Amino acid sequence: MTGRRFALVAVLAAVPIACLSTVVGCQSGGACSWIPTQGTSWWPAASVPPLLVILASALAWTLKFGLVASRTERELARLPRVPIPPKLVRTARAAGLDRFECVRAGSPVAFCAGIVRPTVFISEGAVAGLSDSELLAVLHHEADHARRYEPLWRAARTAAAEVLTFLPIVSWWSARQIVRSELSADAAAERKVGRSALAGALLVMTAPAIPLAAFVGHAELRARRLLGMRIDEPKAPRAVWAASFVYSWLAISLAGCLFAVLVGLTR
Questions:
Q1: pLDDT for 203
Q2: DSSP characters for the chain?
Q3: pLDDT below 70 — which residues of the chain?
Q4: Do residues 111 and 128 lie in contact, with contact meaning Cβ atoms separated by under 8 Å?
Q5: For residue 267, what are the contacts with CB-CB under 8 A and spacing of at least 6?
Q6: How does strand 213-214 pair with strand 81-82?
Q7: Are 206 and 108 in contact (CB under 8 A)?
Q8: Measured at the alpha carbon of residue 53, what is the angle toward residues 41 and 6, in degrees to the nearest 5?
């Protein structure tokens, strides 16, 4: 961490203390009365602000998850379905897929979606443009997403990252989990059909218009895995951890202020 960044973090960390102790004052009934003083117990006074933040975050996450799920279902309902080609039926059965749909689109697209019942969607362009082995690779990849309920977990992580904006580490972790899920699905497909079929499928496929558990994405890392090159597990930057700590402290401190004000109003 650079000296300038460290100074910024130190200033941000001091903001709640300045607000609570200098602006309002730590007197009985004041806005920082949740901070235990000499002779008082840390519990339950100090536990209230973190609990408030946790409860508020859980409620916000529940609402956001519901919105993400409903928006996804609406977008899926608008997709133009077409009769499933015999080639897709035959290949899907070989891949062990039970739920799959064919959608009208000239570009080759495939993705897994559906919170409760994960379904594989594949376009007419993909069915026509992929060879049998490449199509089988795509379906094995998406079948792995379906078996792991990746659409559900991805929606949950997306909601958490959008709600917990004061914890940048959550957003970093969510993005990292997407990469892991794609590499894992690639490995599952490669075990079934081999490396050449999977590589050919990656060259043909394109990304869908909406962010779902799609076949393409993170092409460079996936190509490195196919080539047998080492993929180092990245660590969260120290700046992300520092920002998460500072912002969580700010959130807890502000929750403490709000709690103390509400308590003061009821007295």
A1: 85
A2: --HHHHHHHHHHHHHHHHIIIIII-SSTTSTTTTS--TTS-STTGGGHHHHHHHHHHHHHHHHHHHHHHHHHHHHHHTS-EEPPPHHHHHHHHHTT-SSEEEE--SS--EEEE-SSS-EEEEEHHHHHHS-HHHHHHHHHHHHHHHHTTHHHHHHHHHHHHHH-TT-HHHHHHHHHHHHHHHHHHHHHHHHHH-HHHHHHHHHH----SS-SEES-S-HHHHHHHHTT---------HHHHHHHHHHHHHHHHHHHHHHHHHHHHH-
A3: 1-46, 206-220, 229, 263-264, 267
A4: no
A5: 29
A6: unpaired
A7: yes
A8: 90
Rounded CA-CA distance 130/152 in Å is: 28
DSSP letters for 121-136:
EEEHHHHHHS-HHHHH
pTM: 0.77
pLDDT for residue 216: 53
Residue 232 C-alpha from the chain's centroid = 21
